[in-house]
Structure formats: C-alpha cells, structure tokens
Amino acid sequence: MKEKIKFSGVVQETLLIPLYMRAVESKRKTDNILKDDYAEGLVDRIDYNFAKLKNAKMSYVGCVVRGRYYDDAVRSFILSHQNPVVVNVGCGLDTRYQRIVEHDHAVFYELDLPEVIELRRHLIPEQQGDTYLEGSLLDDDWMDELRTRHPDSEFLIVAEGVLMYFYERQVKRFVTRIAKRFAGGELCFDVCGPMMTKHGMRPDSLQDSPVEIRSGYADGREMEKWAPNIRLIEQKSYMSMFRNRWGLVAYTFGLFPRLCFRFSSMLRFRL
After folding, report:
1. For the segment 251-264, what is each residue's pLDDT rounded down to a tens digit?
2. What are the strands, taking DSSP E only, across 81-185?
C-alpha cells in the first residue's frame, strides 16, 4: 500500500521533485544519465500526484544532470583525499550515498530540518557510515560539531537544489561560515541566475507553485569576494552536459555557456 506524505510547507514538498526525476531516469532502458534503484522504490511507495511533474521536461533533464555532476564530484573528492567527509546539506530524500559505490571510503552526513529528517528516517533508514543530522544550513552548531568530530578530515560540503530558496544575505552567511571552518575542503552548490530572480522566471517544475526563487548569480567568481580562502574550481552549464538529451533549442543554447549562466549553473569551490 502506498504511503501518504504530508508537508508543513511548499518548500519541503519540493524535495519530491528531484526524487521523481531520478526515478524516471533510472527506469530508462538505455542511455541513463544516472541509475537510482532506491529512488525508483521510493516513488513507487509514496502516494503523491507525480503526474503533475511529467511535463516538466527541462527540470527533468536538469535534475538528473545535476545529480550526475555532483555524484562525479563526490567520487572524485573521495578518491583524492585521505580522510574524506561528505556533508549533504538540505539532503531531502537524496540517495547519493546509495548511488555511490565508493561510499565506504568516506564518512557521510545528511543534514536537513527536523521534519524532513523524520520523514527521511522513515523512508530511508539510517545506515552505518551515513549519519543523519537535524538542523538548518544557517545554523553554526552542526558545523562546529562536525569539525570537532573530525579534526583531521577533509570536508566536501554539497548543497544541491537548496540555496536558490534563500536570500543573498543568507547564502553569503552560509558560504562564509563554511569557508571559515572547513579550509582544505571543497564546497559545491547550484544557483539560479539573475534571469530567474529579476524577471520572475522559474523552472517548469515550479510553474504552479508559490515557491520563490530568492537569489541569483551569473558569475561564480562573485563568491570569491566573500572570503579570502574561496577559489572557484568550476562553473558548469547544465546544457553543456549530455547535450543530446536537451532537445534542439536547448542544445543550441548550450553552445553559449555565459548566456546559460544567466539562468542557472553548477558551482564547485576549493576552500
């Protein structure tokens, strides 16, 4: 029997969007951008009107491209560091730990609000090596706790599909506090661009949602001004990856990365 899921707000409900998109992609018989058996099982288990997301084709490809990009970044970090710790900030129902075969070579943490962690524990039981933490990305306590727990480790902080729902002052607060505590590690997050914030545009998966896109950045180097130890490793356009999956218009659009950055991009920083 399927389970009905209740949410206290529309932002929390958005965690089902990437879950559904990964499940759909995983069921493709060929040419998968990523494979996520766990997401398939969860979508089959949850009683929710996923049908309303079936026409969100740009978000569909975008979600799985982003997931694959950061999966690869996490794998690379794990394999290139001696004592890696991976922190999934705003984890929702993400299943990266289950997707990455190298997870035994790192310590993983999943951070989200208490309501979400409660749901996650119910749907995705906590495993040894993947610890759940209740808290907000704007809190300092979990940062200090993890730094104390792992004084000799290198941290990779991943905030996927999260920061666009926060105001710029909040994004800056998060980034600068991470930079202060986790020097020697990396920070990954995706952003919407100014076309989203200044012109009221939104992803097709959110067309009928009251959720606001509250911050937008076209140049990842802007964050280098926020703290002295932040260096941009890469700013990646979604449409530069798996270009045959985007359709003709988006395929052509992907030839112009800086134009794409005005709508969205994926960022990686060295701390």
Report:
1. 788 888 899 999 99
2. 84-89, 107-112, 130-134, 154-159
